[in-house]
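quick one
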Amino acid sequence: MNSESSSSIQQFAATQFEGYRFYTETIEVTHMSALAFFEAGGNDYTGKRMFWKNREKTFTLVGIGHAHVLSTNETTGRFDKIKKDWKNLSRQIVNEEQSVHPVLFGGFSFDPLNTKPSEWRRFPQAYFAVPTFQLVLKGEQAFISIHLITKAQESFKEFDVLRKKRDKLIHAAQVLEVDQYDKPVVTERIELRKQEYMDSIERITTIINAKEVEKVVIARTVKLGFEEKFSPTSALYQVSNEQPESFLFGLEAQEQFFFGATPERLVKVENDRALSTCLAGSTPRGKTIEKDTELGEALLQDPKNRAEHQYVVSMISEVFKATCSQLIVPKVPKLMKIRDIQHLYTPVEGNLNVSSTLFDLVELLHPTPALGGEPKLEALALIREYEAMNRGYYAAPIGWIDTEGNGEFAVAIRSALLDDEKAYLYAGGGIVADSTPESEYDETWVKFRPMLRALGGQLSDES
Ligand SMILES: C=C(O[C@H]1C=CC=C(C(=O)O)[C@@H]1O)C(=O)O
Ligand SMILES: [Mg+2]
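structure w/ magnesium ion:
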C-alpha cells in the first residue's frame, strides 16, 4: 500500500486556517427538487455546482457556489493535504448545526503521474469545495444550509446578503419545471484511438502471461459532438433516468462538467462503520428472464471473471484488515444486476479503528484492482505507459465528507466529461491472462450503453 504523504504540506496545514471563521445556518424547507435547485443555481453560480445521490436514494446533496475551495495540483501528498485542510477548516466552525453538518464535496484525479495531454483542463489533481448553499434531502426532509468561511470582521452583513440569495434560489427552484429536458442532438460519435486500445490489450495480456503482473484495467474514450451546448442539469436528468440503480454524481469545474451514474461504491463511513464494494466481472443482461439467468449463472461460474473479481476482494479485504475490526467478507460473490449489465459483487464491511479516517480509506483503496490492477503500483505504471488516454477523474474517487468525518465516495465509472458542445465518455475492463481484445472491446460497449442512451449517442440498431 503506498501513501502519497509529504511532510511540508502537513506543517503548512496546521496554521493555514487561523483567523478564519466558518459560519453555518440551516433551515428546513417543506419540499425541494434537487435537480431544480441545481438548475436554479446556474443563474449565478455556473461552474461552481455539485450533485450527489446515493445508490439507495436515501441521501441527496446539491452544492451551489464555493464557500471555500480545497484543491491541489501536487502529484504527491494530495490525499493528506485535503484530509488535513478539511480537519483544520472543520475546527473553525463557529456555530455547528445539529440537523445537518457542512459538507466538503469533490474528487481526485485517477493518476497524478500521468502527464499525457488531455481534455481535463479545468480539473486539478484534487478538487473539493464547501458549497455556499447546500441542499440535503434525507428521507422526506429537506435542509438548506448557508456556509460562509471568512476572515472578515463584519461578516454578519455578508451573511444577510447570502440569506437573500438563498431565498431567491429557493423561489427559483420551486417555480421551475424540471421534466422539460430534451436529449441533445448528436452530430458525431468517434471512438478515440481504438486501434491503440486494441493493441494495448494485446500487449498487456502478453505482460500478464509473462507473470510480470496479474491484472491491469485498460480503458478507452468515445467522443460525442452535439449540435449545441448541452446543459449539466439536462445531463443529470437524462443519466438518472437511464441508470436509476446507481450513485448519481456531478461536479462542475468552470465550463467543464464531470458526471455519471456509477454502481460502484469505493467506501462509505457512517458512525465508525466502514463499507466498501468489490465490483468486477461483467456480462450483459439477457433479453428474456431465462437468458438473463443463464448469463448470470455463467458469470458466477466463469474462471476469467472470477479471477478478475477475486483480486478486488483480496485487496479490499487487506485494506480493511489494516484499518477495521470485525470484518464481514462473504466467501462467494453475488450478482449485481443493473439495467444493461450484470456484475460480480461482494460487499465488505467492518468497524473503523479510531486511528483511521474516511480519507485514509480512500487513499488506501484507490485504485482497487477493479480500476487499477494487481499489484497496484506495477499496474498503474503499465496503465501510464500503454493506455492510450489520460483518465482525468474517470475511475477515480468522487464524493463527500462532513465535519464529523462521515461520508461516502464512489468510483467514478460509467461517466462522462461534458465540455460545451462535446462529451467524452469512458469505459474500461479488467485484463487478466485469458482476456482478448475483441471480448474486452465488446464489454466496453455494454458499459458505454447507459451514457450513450442518456446523451442520444447510440446507433439506430442499439436499444
Ligand atoms: C472499468 C470499468 O468497470 C470496472 C467495474 C466493474 C466491472 C469491471 C469489469 O468487469 O471489467 C471493471 O473492473 C468501467 O465501467 O469503465
Ligand atoms: Mg471485465
